[in-house]
């Protein structure tokens, strides 16, 4: 059976999600759209980009190829959805991978480990993981490093997983490099003036998934949502405004960028499965070449750790504009956020659950 045999009807999305999540026997992947193959079909159409919005040198500052070289596509039936098949310059992905693993988890950013550890214990997740990740396996069952236990990080306006809201009183600066990257992608896609105000990083192991959801907590839905993927590949499902709409399955490979705007901005989506890049013909993860000088050359230690980590993991960064121009958060009080273990979510224990498992269990 192929996923396309699931017809519109009661929770068709869930049926397709379960289809692709199944471990044994493995599902038939023949319906999965692969934009890296780049062949426009009756379903895949070229996306029109604004070639003058970003100069080649500006693009290179964010590690991107000139916009004229990007392979950008739309999907019939998904207005506002744009898929850019790895627009990064060769050798620039390691910079972004290192940012996601070493820099962005640092304070004042918030991560799942803060829910049950003190800020001083989670201050240097990378430093505390170096030894465990770089030593050769001893054959014994080693405790997981903090980096291996990292599941999410929030940036900018910190998303509160319990209340599913952002608030004015829990905000720290969004990293300037991620802001620059986001502004360039959105400008080229026809959204000048995008302001990257919140980021959510998800860290996927080989058996992780992300449940069916809509990103609707942002107050301005006219602004696009951006998604960057690095490391192992994944199957991404994009549905419609109702769970009855059967979703389209597509591969997300390392370096791929998605822009969800217009009607697609509020479509259901999910990640049912991580696919080892080695199983993907043509995606052999030749990531750690040093051709690009973005952010300087990676140290040997950084290279080794990033390579080790990424060999079994996937990173996804979503960037959102929360407030429209001149818009403010409503006056309704949200509880003050503290900088201790109750930060970004209230009760430790409840909030330490990952959104992935949390949403999964309700399926
Ligand atoms: C998300 O929808 O929040 C992330 C999707 C992904 O990991 O590709």
From TrEMBL:
Pfam families: 2OG-FeII_Oxy_2. One of its GO terms (molecular function) is ferrous iron binding. It comes from Champsocephalus gunnari (Mackerel icefish). Fe cation binds at residues 213, 215, 269. Keywords: Dioxygenase, DNA damage, DNA repair, Iron, Lyase, Metal-binding, Multifunctional enzyme, Nucleus, Oxidoreductase, RNA repair, Transcription, Transcription regulation, Translation regulation. Residues 354-363 have a biased composition (Basic and acidic residues). It is found in: Nucleus. InterPro entries: Alkb, AlkB-like, AlkB-like_sf, Oxoglu/Fe-dep_dioxygenase_dom. GO terms for biological process: DNA repair; oxidative RNA demethylation; positive regulation of gene expression, epigenetic; regulation of translational initiation by tRNA modification; RNA repair. This is Nucleic acid dioxygenase ALKBH1. It comes from the Eukaryota. GO terms for cellular component: cytoplasm; nucleus.
């Amino acid at each position: 059976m192929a996923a396309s045999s699931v017809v519109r009807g009661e929770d068709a999305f869930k049926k397709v999600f379960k289809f692709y999540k199944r471990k044994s026997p493995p599902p038939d992947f023949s319906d999965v759209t692969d934009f890296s193959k780049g062949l426009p079909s009756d379903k895949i159409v070229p996306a029109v980009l604004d070639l003058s919005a970003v100069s080649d040198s500006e693009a290179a500052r964010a590690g991107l190829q000139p916009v004229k070289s990007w392979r950008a596509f739309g999907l019939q039936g998904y207005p506002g959805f744009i898929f850019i098949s790895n627009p990064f310059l060769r050798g620039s992905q390691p910079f972004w991978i290192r940012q996601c693993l070493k820099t962005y988890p640092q304070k004042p950013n918030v991560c799942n480990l803060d829910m049950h550890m003190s800020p001083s214990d989670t201050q240097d997740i990378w430093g505390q993981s170096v030894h465990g990740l770089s030593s050769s396996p001893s054959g014994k069952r080693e405790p997981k490093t903090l980096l291996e236990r990292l599941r999410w990080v929030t940036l900018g306006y910190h998303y509160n997983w319990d209340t599913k809201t952002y608030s004015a009183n829990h905000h720290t600066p969004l990293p300037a490099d991620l802001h620059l990257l986001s502004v360039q992608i959105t400008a080229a896609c026809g959204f000048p003036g995008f302001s990257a105000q919140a980021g959510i990083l998800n860290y996927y192991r080989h058996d992780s998934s992300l449940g069916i959801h809509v990103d609707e907590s942002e107050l301005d839905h006219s602004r696009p949502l951006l998604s960057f993927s690095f490391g192992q590949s994944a199957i991404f499902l994009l549905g419609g405004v109702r769970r009855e709409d059967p979703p389209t399955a597509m591969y997300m490979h390392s370096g791929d960028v998605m822009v969800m705007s217009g009607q697609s901005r509020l479509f259901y989506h999910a990640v049912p499965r991580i696919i080892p890049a080695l199983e993907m013909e043509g995606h052999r993860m030749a990531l750690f070449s040093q051709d690009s000088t973005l952010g300087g050359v990676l140290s040997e230690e950084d290279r080794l750790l990033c390579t080790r980590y990424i060999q079994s993991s996937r990173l996804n960064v979503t960037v959102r504009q929360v407030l429209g121009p001149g818009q403010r958060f409503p006056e309704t009080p949200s509880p003050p956020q503290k900088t201790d273990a109750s930060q970004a979510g209230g009760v430790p224990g409840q909030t330490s659950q990952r959104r992935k498992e949390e949403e999964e269990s309700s399926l």
